[in-house]
Design goal:
There is one protein chain. This protein is mainly alpha-helical and about 130 residues long. The chain has two domains: about 70 residues, Arc Repressor Mutant, subunit A, CATH 1.10.10; about 35 residues. Helix content is about 55%, strand content about 5%. The chain is built from five helices and two strands; from the N terminus they run H-H-H-E-E-H-H. Strands 1-2 form a two-stranded antiparallel ribbon. Strand 1 and strand 2 form a beta hairpin. It is elongated.
């Protein structure tokens, strides 16, 4: 299967690794992608992915990724950068969970379950790798 079919998944993995770590080495990204996507990925593919995330106007991510020569690893220059705008922080998730508790007696049972399901979906989509 062509490697570009996994490009979006690799972008998400790269973004997650850069958010979780101050610096990320190319080989760490390669091994994570190979483990998670179960396909062969090269260092060159990851380097091209990072270049695309930074510069490709069609994608429009313009990710603030830089390479630190001293550490020999990539990092985000803007730690608040989000690859996709609907990414929730742990503080926002905690707020939503508190909101769910506060509204338990004030919403219908169906609405309460719907809100709980929405929060669960958000938690799944923001789960760490």
């Amino acid at each position: 299967m062509a490697q570009n079919k996994y490009a979006l998944a690799r972008y998400c993995l790269i973004d997650s690794l850069l958010h979780r770590n101050e610096y990320v080495k190319t080989m760490d990204i390669v091994s994570t992608c190979q483990r998670r996507l179960r396909c062969n990925i090269t260092q060159r593919t990851i380097q091209m992915d990072i270049f695309a995330m930074k510069n490709d106007s069609f994608l429009g991510y313009f990710a603030p990724i830089e390479y630190n020569q001293r550490v020999k690893a990539y990092y985000y220059t803007d730690r608040d950068y989000q690859l996709f705008p609907l990414h929730f922080s742990s503080k926002e998730l905690l707020f939503l969970q508190r909101l769910l508790i506060l509204t338990k007696g004030k919403l219908s049972q169906d609405d309460h379950f719907l809100l709980r399901d929405i929060i669960d979906k958000i938690k799944i989509s923001t789960t760490e790798i």
